[in-house]
Amino acid sequence: MPDGRYSSLVDILQGCDFLTELVQRIEFCLDSTLSLVLDRASKKLEIIRRERRRNIEMLESLLKDTAAKIFLAGGIDNPLVTKRRSRMCVGVKASHKHLMPGGIVLSSSGSGATYFMEPQDAVELNNREVKLSGEERAEELVVLSLLTSMIADSQLKIRNLMDNVLELDLACARGSYALWTNSVRPTFTDSYTISQSDQCNDYSIYIEGIRHPLLLEQSLMAEESTTEASEMPVPLDMWVKKNARIVVISGPNTGGKTATMKTLGLSSLMSKAGIFFPAKGRPRIPWFDQVLADIGDHQVVSVL
């Protein structure tokens, strides 16, 4: 890697355990898109579901035939196969209940004009459907419990992986932000010697052409949402000599004093967080232990 700039990211990647076997096992057993336990997750589950599909086919065929016969006999306006109380049944007018001898009334419509009845021939098939449905759910829980145990056994590795991914994601986010705002990397220093006008001057802060990060962000977002160019915040130059203990910024109202202080405060916090800030050249800034704000007249420049 050139000049070792990416070595720390490479170290993070090399320290990742991606738990390939666990991922493969989960993908073999589950369809994450459908939130479904797959048939192949266990042999028992595959057998149960095959039997259940066969039973449902027979049950639906029986009920469709029954509903069609009731319709032809004038017992319902339209053939109706539905489910009530977890059992498949057909609809029939209350006045034509006799068309289904031995049938069981599971429910009725709000008006009471329609009964939802389970044909006598469907009782055994419905019983089997209820039984197989319960067995299927029980076996799904067995599979999910096994996968949960495997995940629990790997929880430390998973947490470590998540921490590493977070570090990489933050690094990528910082890089994307720097490209978007045309930002540069600052250098922390207690003092910086710079030559200017044939004189040697020591500076603890040396920043050229910096723009308020949040105001710049608003301008860039406005440009992206319209074809017109947006007005950019005014760039600022900040030079503070190393021996200065107090800096007083004076000037008229709306002259930029508050914006300047906030820009420096944000730049300090961004630097400490490893975020480049929008300036020119090679800015230098001290490591401020504290960044405090006490604004008494409720001024607001975006949000600090």
UniProtKB/TrEMBL annotation:
InterPro entries, per database record: DNA_mismatch_repair_MutS_sf (IPR036187), MutS (IPR045076), P-loop_NTPase (IPR027417)
Protein origin, superkingdom: Eukaryota
GO biological process: mismatch repair
Any one GO MF annotation of this record: ATP binding
Listed PANTHER family: OS10G0509000 PROTEIN-RELATED, SMR DOMAIN-CONTAINING PROTEIN
Protein name: DNA mismatch repair protein MutS type 2
